[in-house]
Structure formats: structure tokens, C-alpha cells
Amino acid sequence: MAYTAEEEQEIEDIKSWWHENYKVIIAALVLGFGGAWGWHYWQGYQVTQTHKASSEYEQIVMIQDATQRDSRLAEFVKNNDKTTYAVFALLDQAKDAVATKDFATAENALKQATAQAQDDVLLSVSALRLASVQYQQKQYDAALDSLKLVKNSSWDNQKSILTGDIQFTKGDNAAAKASYEQALVKATPVEQQWLQLRLNNL
């Protein structure tokens, strides 16, 4: 199982956007937090902490040795609990685990990612990947439950396709047909071709 190009690009876009804009976001939070006191306290602490996490994360993902990188990522997640960079690190851990077909480890990392994600985009990406991993492990009902966490509309098609695949595997052809037909509405030409193949095989 490999993640789609769309999923990978979405994560890279999120990382780039966050790296470029986190100071502005924190400043906006500070201004709403409590005037001058809020500004002096949070500017001095939160911006420094976020910059530190950003720098550390970027150093870790450059490590070539997978075992060492995963060890550092695990430590990073522990020290940066419930931050955007912790979610990035968990997604990276899961990706490494999937590459070696260690789906149990990937599932654990993705469950943590869904629990820590603070926005719909990261939650949706994490949940979609979690459902894919659970599908690989034949945890079909768990995968369908995970797909319920996919809230961002950008992932509606991927959600419908995976839902259809799970339903088909479970033998529910009628439900699978409905899911595939829903995905067809906004599918790309390439997606339309293999969705039609799926429908023809029902």
C-alpha cells in the first residue's frame, strides 16, 4: 500500500504553509489573548517554542537512517505533544512503517495523529491514512469508523472510493455501488476510468 500523490502533496503543502505562516498565526492569537501582557509573554515563549520545534523537526526528517529517524521522531512527538509538528512527525512515522509493511506500527502512529490534529485538514489526512492501514489489516469496520473522521471536503472522493472498496470487500455490493457512484461525480478522468471498472465488476 502506498499513499497517493494527492495525499503526499497535501501534506507537503500544509508543512510549507505552516512554516511560512506560524508566526502570523501566533501573533493573531496573542492579540486576542490579553493586550500587552499577552503579547510580551506569548511572543517570548510560543514563537520561540514553535521555531525550535520547526528547526528540530526539519533536522530529524533529513536523517537518512530510518531506524534512527523513527527513534528521533518518537522522542520529538513526546516532547511536542498536541502540536502541528507532532502530527507531521506521526505522519512521517506512519509512512516509514507502511514502507516496511509494519501496518500495526503505522496504525498506532496514525491513531495518535488523529487524536492530536487540531484542524480539519490534518485530521482528515490522518484519518484517511488510518482507514487505509486498517483496511490493509482487514479491520473493515474500524476503517469505516475512521473514515467518519474525514471532514475536509477536499478528501470526499478519496473517502468515497475507500469506503466503496471496504464495502465491496465485505460483500455489500449495493453500498459499494452507491459509494463509487458518489465518487464519480467529482472524479478526474483517470479516476473515472478505474471507478467504472470497479462498477462493472460489481
UniProtKB/TrEMBL annotation:
The chain crosses the membrane at residues 24-42. Its main location: membrane. It is found in: Cell membrane. It is a single-pass type II membrane protein. It comes from the Bacteria. One of its GO terms (cellular component) is plasma membrane. Keywords: Cell membrane, Chaperone, Membrane, Transmembrane, Transmembrane helix. Gene3D superfamilies: Tetratricopeptide repeat domain (1.25.40.10). One of its GO terms (molecular function) is protein-containing complex binding. Residues 15-202 form the Ancillary SecYEG translocon subunit/Cell division coordinator CpoB TPR domain. Coiled coil: none annotated. InterPro entries: SecYEG/CpoB_TPR, TPR-like_helical_dom_sf, YfgM. Pfam families: TPR_21. Belongs to the YfgM family. This is Ancillary SecYEG translocon subunit. It comes from Cricetibacter osteomyelitidis.
